[in-house]
């Protein structure tokens, strides 16, 4: 497996103090293990109290970091391990696996995710007068950046707004815009300039992904998808796999199986009904592919998830 480790650096006392303050805020709002949304619509918190095996998830275009503990994100053959020294930046809606590397009940892994808006990034590039980065970058959808006080400081002000809910509608968008600007001056600036450039391959793949997310239950025509993304079929396959670590067909299958899992767990559908609803014509094929993705057949998986939910 290709591993991308966090950057080594000496502890920064200022960063440590800022992380401690943010950990206190997150711990105040999230006292139990899990994830939670906040009054700031683009901001979510997470808390983990034990090490974990890789767990399947869907990550959005977002900035993710921990203020205590450590995690890693697994995408295809790449691993992005991160602690308080760095952050993860993701530019597309892609399937991944998340794993907790450092956490316990006394010192849980605490962190947050902020959804990014690359239209705001493009506006800032046009308005700021910042010179374009000289270095070249690859087109991977996920990367590790180095956390700095300049990037972390506005998060302190953003989280403080949770105690002042009447100010959120006015002030949160301004602080989020500042965070987008700080990212444009980070060590991932070259990647962000590339992502924000309308018409590049990342934008076209994003169009293809959006189409798949809406039409996942329909038969997949690669020619139709390529036309929608304004790419040739070969270019679509190459860049789709480069950015998501899977083919369009694999991506559709992941969407179908996870939606079927949700239907069985939350809506109480049986396996056959869920399979037909998400686009499968054969329940046996659905069961085989479900078992390959989640490790166990549908009924056993759902029963285990329900027992786990009752135990928490």
Automatic annotation (TrEMBL):
PROSITE patterns cross-referenced by the UniProt entry: HTH_ARAC_FAMILY_2
Domain HTH araC/xylS-type: start-end pairs: 206-304
Keyword NAD found: no
Highest rank taxon of the organism: Bacteria
InterPro entries: Homeodomain-like_sf, HTH_AraC, Tscrpt_reg_HTH_AraC_N
Gene3D superfamilies the record matches: Homeodomain-like
GO molecular function: DNA-binding transcription factor activity; sequence-specific DNA binding
Name recorded for this polypeptide: AraC family transcriptional regulator
């Amino acid at each position: 497996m290709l591993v991308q480790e966090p950057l080594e650096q000496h502890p920064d006392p200022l960063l440590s103090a800022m992380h401690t303050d943010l950990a206190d805020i997150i711990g105040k709002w999230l006292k139990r293990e899990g994830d939670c949304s906040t009054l700031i619509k683009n901001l979510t918190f997470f808390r983990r109290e034990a090490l974990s095996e890789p767990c399947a998830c869907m990550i959005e275009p977002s900035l993710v970091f921990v203020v205590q503990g450590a995690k890693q994100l697994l995408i295809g053959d790449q691993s992005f391990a991160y602690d308080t020294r760095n952050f993860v930046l993701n530019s597309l809606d892609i399937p991944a696996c998340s794993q907790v590397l450092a956490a316990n009940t006394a010192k849980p892994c605490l962190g947050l995710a902020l959804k990014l808006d690359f239209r705001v990034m493009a506006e800032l590039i046009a308005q700021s007068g910042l010179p374009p980065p000289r270095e070249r970058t690859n087109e991977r959808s996920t990367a590790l950046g180095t956390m700095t006080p300049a990037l972390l400081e506005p998060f302190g002000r953003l989280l403080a707004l949770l105690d002042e809910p009447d100010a959120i509608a006015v002030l949160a968008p301004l602080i989020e815009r500042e965070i987008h600007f700080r990212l444009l001056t980070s060590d991932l600036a070259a990647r962000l300039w590339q992502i924000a450039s309308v018409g590049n391959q990342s934008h076209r793949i994003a169009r293809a992904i959006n189409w798949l997310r809406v039409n996942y239950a329909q038969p997949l025509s690669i020619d139709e998808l390529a036309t929608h993304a304004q790419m040739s079929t070969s270019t679509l396959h190459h860049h789709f796999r480069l950015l998501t670590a899977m083919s369009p067909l694999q991506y559709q299958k992941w969407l179908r199986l996870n939606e079927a899992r949700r239907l069985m767990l939350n809506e109480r559908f049986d396996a056959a009904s869920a399979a037909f609803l998400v686009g499968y014509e054969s329940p046996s094929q659905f069961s085989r592919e479900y078992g390959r993705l989640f490790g166990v057949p549908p009924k056993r998986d759902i029963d285990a998830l329900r027992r786990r939910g009752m135990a928490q």
